[in-house]
Amino acid sequence: MSVMGDQTSPTPTQEGMGRLQSTFHGSTLNDHGEKWDALWKESYTPWDRGGPSLALAELIREKPELFPAHEKGARRKTALVPGCGRGYDVLLLSALGYDVVGMDYSAVAVREAALTERRVLEGRDKELYDSFVGDEGRGAISWTEGDFYEDAWMVIVSRMHYDLIFDYTFFCAMPPEGRPRWAERMSALLTPDTGRLVCLEWPLHKDASEGGPPWGLAAETYVAHLTHPGEEIRYGDNGKPLAEEVERAPTEGALKRLTRFQPRRTHKAGQDGDGKIIDFVSIWGH
């Protein structure tokens, strides 16, 4: 893996930073896990959405042609939610018929996710999740803590590839120098030929040069990295990949964008002040 080239992290003054930005300012990617864990221990989780992604549910229920069909009698399809937090989307994917792994670096987050599952089983928001259950019934749920970029958590769950991976508020948490590694890992974890990476692209409204987390993203950011996983990507002064990086031929392990659309429903964070949706969903495969 090569590091990010021609891209330096913005260095705003400490006074002008928000809590998240100041927490991670000046730290390397290797330090980030412990910092996220510390925020969980302090119960400081402004990224928590309080419920599952309706955009993800809409995609899977209304665009089945984008996903390989489940064959009767075959193993249940598998899904992964990295940086799962309190696990809402893990529960959603389970209701939609997937055997799901929810993983997070923070042991506190994983415990919170298990509590969310218990509360749903006891009745809180049960009707919401039940509304997504189809003929296949619920899939199994596994919670695990670990470093996304290490293999130890995969050994624990005994699974190396996934039919579906959902990324939301995960890519935007990566500093720019971590993006090649993110793309390389996503490519490796996705089931060859038939796997699907679903990205709820956020925050598209934030200037990419402002810093993070969350780091402002653009459609071009996903394209440049996922079509050249693990490779150095050159950026312009606006914080977006250079056009020639987006347009050059895909390289080994590349993912192809199958479609990109605006969902009809999404979290409030993906809407502007007038309630207009600004999120996009993109779907990728080998």
From TrEMBL:
Keyword tags: Methyltransferase, Phosphoprotein, S-adenosyl-L-methionine, Transferase
Annotated region (Disordered), positions in chain: 1-25
Keyword check for Cytoplasm: no
Entry GO MF terms: S-adenosylmethionine-dependent methyltransferase activity
Keyword Phosphoprotein in record: yes
Stored InterPro entries: SAM-dependent_MTases_sf (IPR029063), TPMT (IPR008854)
CDD domains in the cross-refs: AdoMet_MTases
GO BP terms in the entry: methylation
Signal peptide boundaries: none
Pfam families, per database record: TPMT (PF05724)
PROSITE patterns hit by this protein: SAM_MT_TPMT (PS51585)
Protein's UniProt name: S-adenosyl-L-methionine-dependent methyltransferase
